[in-house]
Design a protein that fits this description.
By secondary structure, the chain is an alpha/beta fold. Helix content is 44%, strand content 18%. It has 21 helices and 22 strands. Helix 11 links the parallel strand 13 and strand 14. Helix 8 packs parallel to helix 9. The protein starts with 7 loop residues before the first helix and ends in a 9-residue tail after the last helix.
Length: 693
């Protein structure tokens, strides 16, 4: 038993522990000593005593005992009056009170309980009973204090929660307003930027489709490539907005992974050619031919990674590869790892954590050698995550980088998307002079698939030695970069030993062509890097069939001048922007159409009332009557089989814009800048129903 005085704060800190503090108020010191003796040896019990009743309330307020032993008969004050005073004092009004009396009197006992006592004992009580009652009342009191503290904390927490919810509601409302304002800003920015971009890209496309000198063509291609770069930047910003608002949805269509990778690398090949970089694409043969997934988003990731690799690689190679990682037979999915490896400048270890952060650059100084907003990699990583995968980098400063990402797709047990006749070259032999190991492996892999025998030569001397007997080869594949400045002398040496041996050149230059004056005659085709399976197959077919040609085939026109003969349609174009309508008209006229035009939705309705049309290219934002309302009224006035096909031709490219157009009654959706291929595809979906006037 302790007899020291404890502070209320100490008691409050010890509420979580079971601890008894007794205050005895009795004018007889003998009783005080007797109670103290009873409580000796109890380590969890503090005992305090006062013989002065007028000090009892003040002492109790100071000590905050867990139980009060109160004598009833005392000089100067009645014990019951003191109990009443305890109960009227806020600090001790709930403290348990055990009344001590010299006799068991029912009337006195009843009065004690009536004024607020919790128990009644005849003094001196049995020691064990006294300790038990002290502990019982103390425990009940402390439990009550704990419950009160808990309820008080709960009420305070609930009040804070209500206040926090109110603040959150206000903040959420402000966030929604800010998000709406940002979406409106991005939508307006997208529309306003795409409209002039439609004019720039459209007119550049029309120029490239017309006779130009080499200098003029180079200048127009520069304008077009920079316009495409600006459009890519705009699309990155819009993709970032879609990802941030979780409104970017992944599509699922059958596609060929090989074609997807080859298309992506071909897009960056013009930037790799001036640096003489080796571009290669290697695909694991275990990967199924046809996959189900979002090919457009996958191509976006690869183009971004390969474009960065080319940008940061002054010499060497950029290799894209794909391999099968896992197969999930339960869910019917496979996981593929794609890697873009380069021999570029590399990334320091301490800077790699910045790579996938939005608007972050490894080199953020004003003197940095390479530009960019720092959006591409962040968006690519999020796209990989949306495809069920992840993205990471392996790099060392000065030794190149490899960007890897995983994605999940479903294999499709179907024929190739564009079935080709079965290829077999089992009786043929190809001499190959390629130094780059990946390019050699790609050729070897494709040759195995076609049953073609390959003999790889290390030098020009090896090839010339192999040609002592013409039966040693039926054709030859030569890397133009290896032959170098002496390529024509080498080819003439080949011709001298084997006149009829056809040669296929492998070149990194997509504008490379064979001059008839310089070509000795045995070069029948050339294949651009990265090696595309279809291009190599076409070249081999030409070589083995003896269709020798040293002239460059005419460049395919961007706009098919006889398309209107294939799809004779009566077309109306509606747009209030003079440049946009000029681009659309020029595209269509180059395709062989006669086009009528309108500048707003009201004019569209008036023209349709006078003449039937097969298709209406309808801009969304127009004065007087916008495209949405015009589409609704067209659908109301004419039945489906008796009205033109409505094709939205709009610069609105935000999430939900396509759905809004379709909901208004439009049948198709084209985003500015207009692309010839997309325009042709939309017209192919039209149905002929009128006779052009």
């Amino acid at each position: 038993m302790k007899t020291s005085i404890s502070s209320p704060a100490l008691l409050e800190n010890e509420l979580g522990k079971y601890h008894v503090m007794v205050l005895l108020v009795d004018d007889q010191a003998l009783i005080g000593e007797a109670v103290r003796s009873c409580l000796l040896g109890q380590p969890d019990l503090d005992f305090h005593y006062t013989p002065y009743p007028h000090e009892a309330v003040a002492l109790a307020k100071k000590l905050r005992p867990t139980v009060i032993l109160q004598d009833l008969v005392m000089p100067e004050i009645n014990g019951l009056d003191l109990v009443r005073e305890y109960r009227s004092t806020p600090e001790i009004k709930d403290t348990p009170i055990i009344v001590l009396s010299s006799q068991m009197d029912a009337k006195i006992k009843s009065d004690a309980f009536a004024v607020g006592a919790n128990d009644y004992l005849v003094k001196l009580p049995d020691r064990i009973e006294l300790i038990a009652r002290l502990r019982y009342h103390s425990r009940a009191y402390l439990n009550q204090l704990q419950r009160d503290a808990a309820f008080s904390a709960l009420r305070e927490s609930q009040q804070k929660l209500v206040e926090s919810n109110s603040i959150l509601l206000v903040l959420n409302q402000k966030l929604e307003e800010a998000t709406h304002a940002k979406s409106e800003f991005l939508a307006n920015m997208s529309h306003e930027v795409r409209t002039p971009m439609n004019g720039i890209i459209g007119m550049s496309t029309l120029l490239l489709d017309s006779p130009l000198t080499e200098e003029q063509k180079d200048q127009v291609e520069t304008v077009l490539s920079n316009s495409e770069a600006l459009l890519t930047l705009l699309n990155d910003i819009l993709d970032f907005s879609k990802i941030e608002s979780r409104r970017l949805e992944m599509e699922s269509h059958p596609f060929e992974l090989r074609q997807c990778l080859e298309d992506a690398l071909e897009l960056v090949a013009p930037q790799a050619a001036p640096k003489h970089l080796e571009l290669a694409c290697y695909i694991d043969e275990a990967i199924p031919e046809i996959l189900l997934g979002d090919a457009a988003r996958l191509r976006q990731i690869i183009v971004n990674l390969a474009g960065n690799a080319v940008k940061f690689t002054p010499r060497g190679e950029v290799v894209a590869s794909a391999r099968l990682v896992t197969q999930d037979k339960i869910h019917g999915t496979i996981t593929i790892q794609c890697g873009i490896r380069d021999t570029g400048i590399g990334i320091p270890k301490d800077k790699q954590d910045k790579l996938f952060q939005l608007f972050s650059q490894v080199d953020s100084t004003t003197t940095r050698a390479f530009g960019g907003m720092g959006l591409g990699l962040a968006i690519s990583r999020r796209l990989a995550e949306l495809m069920g995968g992840c993205m990471w980098v392996e790099s060392e400063w000065g030794k190149g980088s490899t960007f890897n990402f995983l994605f999940q797709v479903k294999p499709v047990a179907a024929q190739p998307l564009a079935p080709a006749p079965k290829v077999t070259f089992e009786t043929k032999k190809l001499l190959v002079w390629i130094a780059h190991p990946i390019q050699r492996e790609i050729v070897a892999q494709l040759a195995r698939q076609w049953g073609l025998a390959c003999q790889f030569c290390e030098t020009a001397t090896d090839i010339l030695a192999s040609l002592t007997n013409q039966r040693n080869g039926d054709a030859m594949l030569v890397d133009h970069q290896l032959a170098g400045e002496q390529d024509w002398a080498f080819m003439r040496a080949v011709q001298a030993q084997s006149i009829t041996l056809p040669i296929i050149l492998l070149s990194e230059d997509h504008n490379y062509h064979l001059d008839g004056e310089r070509n000795p005659g045995n070069v029948v085709a050339w294949v651009c890097k990265p090696i595309r399976r279809s291009h190599l197959l076409e070249a081999l077919n030409r070589a083995f069939s003896g269709q020798a040609s040293g002239r460059k085939e005419p460049t395919q026109r961007l706009l098919n001048p006889v398309f209107a003969r294939r799809m004779p349609l009566h077309i109306l174009v509606a747009d209030d922007n003079p440049v946009s309508i000029k681009v659309a008209r020029s595209y269509l006229e180059k395709m062989g159409y006669r086009v009528e035009q309108a500048s707003n939705g009201q004019e569209v309705l008036q023209i349709l009332a006078l003449h039937p049309f097969d298709a209406v290219l309808l801009d969304v934002r127009m004065p007087v009557l916008d495209g949405f309302e015009a589409a609704r009224q067209i659908c109301q006035r004419w039945e489906v089989g008796n009205r033109p096909r409505i094709i939205a031709m709009t610069a609105n490219a935000m999430p939900g814009d396509k759905e809004e157009c379709l909901a208004a009654g439009m049948d198709d959706y084209l985003v500015k800048p207009l692309r010839p291929q997309e325009l042709e595809a939309a017209l192919l979906r039209c149905r002929k129903r009128t006779t052009p006037s």
